[in-house]
Amino acid sequence: MRDFAGKVLLIVNVASGCGLTPQYEALEALYRRFKDEGLVVVGFPANDFAGQEPGTDEEIGAFCAASYGVTFPMYSKIAVTGEDQHPLYSLLTSEMPWHESDGAGMREDLDAYLSSKDLVPTLPLPHVLWNFEKFLVGRDGKVIARFAPDVAPESERVVKAVQKALAG
């Protein structure tokens, strides 16, 4: 992450086989809109949630480029929750243990889906809820906002938070 010193980061755990995968398009648009001002969208593929990111790093990169024109940095697949949680996500979730959401129903919907597949339910906060959770990190390296997966990258809340971070 030292490569991004002085930048504003939007760190997102991503997955290619998720109902939220179309958020790649909005993430790319946000990146292109604000990259010259210092925003970097950073994608971390994760297979933590219902096996929705089974591919190799190469397959994931090819899918993102071909399907959504992704040019923002994508890293190797990591664990964002659980016993194998990557240290970056341990830091992010400890610095910002809650997230802004567009409604209370997402967790219930996810738990119903997981139950129907005989999978374990979602973990409580501060754990990452699902794919496409977004952490906004200021130029000073501090986490300044966290958005649940149901908050779209193009939402007014995310855009205003990015603009404020870039101006600060």
Based on the model shown, name its key terms.
168 residues, alpha+beta, Glutaredoxin, four-stranded mixed beta sheet, 5 helices, 14% strand
How would you summarize what this structure contains?
It is built from five helices and four strands; from the N terminus they run βαβαααββα. It is α+β, with helices and mostly antiparallel strands.
Describe this structure in words.
The protein is α+β, with helices and mostly antiparallel strands. It has helices at 23-34, 57-68, 87-95, 105-116, 156-167, and strands spanning 8-14, 39-45, 134-137, 143-147. The longest helix has 12 residues, at 23-34. The chain is globular. 35% of the residues are buried. The model has no long low-confidence stretch (mean pLDDT 95).
Number of strands: 4
Which strand order spans the largest sheet, edge to edge or round the barrel?
Answer: 2-1-3-4
Q: What's the CATH H-level homologous superfamily?
A: Glutaredoxin
Task: Determine Rg (CA atoms, Å).
Answer: 15 Å
Shape label: globular
Describe the main β-sheet briefly. Answer: 4 strands, mixed
Round the mean pLDDT to the nearest integer and report it: 95
Helix content: 25-40%
Counting structural domains, the number is 1
Q: Unreliable stretches, pLDDT < 50, 5 or more residues?
A: none
CATH top level label: Alpha Beta
CATH topology call: Glutaredoxin
Coarse structural class: alpha+beta
Span between termini: 20 Å
Question: How much of the residues is beta strand, in percent?
Answer: 5-15%
Helix and strand string, N-terminal first?
EHEHHHEEH
CATH architect. name: 3-Layer(aba) Sandwich
* Tally of helical runs: 5
